[in-house]
Design goal:
There is one protein chain. The chain contains 13 helices and 11 strands. Helix content is 37%, strand content 21%. The protein is α/β, with parallel strands linked by helices. It folds into 2 domains: 124 residues, Peroxisomal Thiolase, Chain A, domain 1, CATH 3.40.47.10; 236 residues, Thiolase/Chalcone synthase (Peroxisomal Thiolase, Chain A, domain 1, 3-Layer(aba) Sandwich). A 9-stranded mixed β-sheet has the order 3-2-4-7-1-8-11-10-9, sandwiched between helices. It holds the Pfam family Thiolase_C_1. It comes from Arthrobacter mobilis.
């Protein structure tokens, strides 16, 4: 049995949520929009999964009840930027097993300044006990060190990372949902205030309030534009935080993901990779094999990403659209599905296959979770 995405939805991203906004409202709006896109009603849904950092004290069952859902399958994922891939993996299996027919996957957060401060201070026990007491705010310093290591290992410069940020801003110009759409030049990128050397302002994702959702069903056959799920793979604690962070868990699961999909990375026409920092775009494209192992990373960025001959993060990615908490991983899945279903508006590209990656849960030094999904356009 093949499983497909037939609807996507978002709750508008914003840096400044209106007074009275709460997480449940944000996620519910994304769910409603996804169901409307799929031509379905809440009564059609019998499976639901959600990921959120700020939904508490409620849980998945509370949110499902508030949205009026009667379910035979329910899941709550806590793995942040990798949660979309994790939920997708379980949902595909659930539909294949007959546990549910129509599953909605959703993620979102109310992420104002206070919520973000609480999150980065108490992200996990390692953060609370060892990182929070240090004179640094959040993950920027950790990824500044990782970026420095990557620059030294691969011979990359700030200009190389800047080309990624500038190109994603070009894509964002045609995305009405992106929080930052104004053109960004390489000079502006390089001259931006330093956050944590070598990271500047435009290397770091802007936290936003927002939500994302997709609707999954067993493949309906011809006549319905959809994004068919060819494979989903995941890796957790690939190196037990004992490495240098330059390789993600994707390196270990990519081969199986491509074999499951029946295609190779050279056949992909769109890559939506988790982009909390430009260095992670570089790492994941290499680990997925989208950047060929024998190709110079700087040259690949200049020839393929900056020219947009390989579309990467066509929504603008998190660097321009914003990082909506746990919805950050769902953001790329929504964008890939929209592109493959021909619903991306002015930024629409022509692609048959897309790869989506998730990355998240910085246990102590870098992300411990990684997921990859390969999708195919069908109609």
């Amino acid at each position: 049995m093949t499983v497909s995405i037939i609807g996507t939805g978002q709750s508008p991203y914003t840096r400044h949520p209106a007074p009275g906004t709460d997480t449940a409202q944000v996620i519910a709006r994304a769910v409603r929009n996804a169901l409307a896109d799929a031509g379905l009603e809440p009564a059609d849904v019998d499976g639901f999964a959600v990921s959120s950092f700020t939904l508490g004290p409620d849980h998945a069952i509370d949110l499902a009840w508030r949205m009026g859902l009667r379910l035979t399958w329910l899941m709550q994922d806590t793995n942040g930027g990798a949660s979309a891939g994790g939920m997708l993996q379980h949902a595909v299996r659930a539909i294949e097993a007959g546990d549910a027919r129509v599953i909605v996957l959703a993620a979102g957060d109310l992420m104002d300044a206070a919520a973000f401060s609480r999150l980065v201070a108490r992200y996990n026990r390692a953060t609370e006990d060892h990182l929070a007491p240090l004179p640094m705010n959040g993950p920027n310093a950790l990824f500044a060190m990782l970026t420095t290591r990557q620059m030294e290992a691969l011979g990359l410069s700030r200009e190389d990372y800047g080309r990624i940020a500038v190109t994603q801003r070009q894509w964002a110009a045609d995305n009405p949902a992106a929080v930052y759409r104004k053109a960004l030049t390489l000079e502006e990128y390089l001259d931006a205030p330093t956050v944590a050397t070598p990271l500047g302002r435009y290397d770091c994702v802007p936290p936003v309030t927002g939500g994302d959702a997709v609707v999954l069903v067993a493949d309906r056959g011809s006549g319905t534009p959809r994004a068919r799920v060819l494979s989903v793979r995941a890796s957790y604690n690939a190196d037990q935080q004992a490495g240098d962070g330059l390789a993600t868990g994707l390196r270990g699961c990519a081969r199986a993901g491509w074999e499951d999909a029946g295609i190779g990375p050279a056949e992909v026409g769109l890559a939506c990779v988790y982009d909390d920092y430009p260095a992670m775009v570089v790492a994941q494209l290499a680990d997925l094999g989208v950047q060929p192992p024998d190709e110079d990373p700087a040259g690949f960025i200049e020839r393929r990403i900056a020219t947009r001959s390989l579309p990467v993060n066509t929504s603008g990615g998190q660097l321009s659209a914003g990082q909506a908490g746990a919805a950050a991983g769902m953001h790329g899945l929504v964008e890939a599905a929209r592109q493959l279903m021909g619903r991306a508006g002015a930024r629409q590209i022509s692609a048959r296959h897309a790869v989506v990656s998730g990355y998240g849960m910085v246990l102590y030094r870098y992300g411990a979770c990684a997921t990859m999904s390969v999708l195919e356009a069908a109609a």
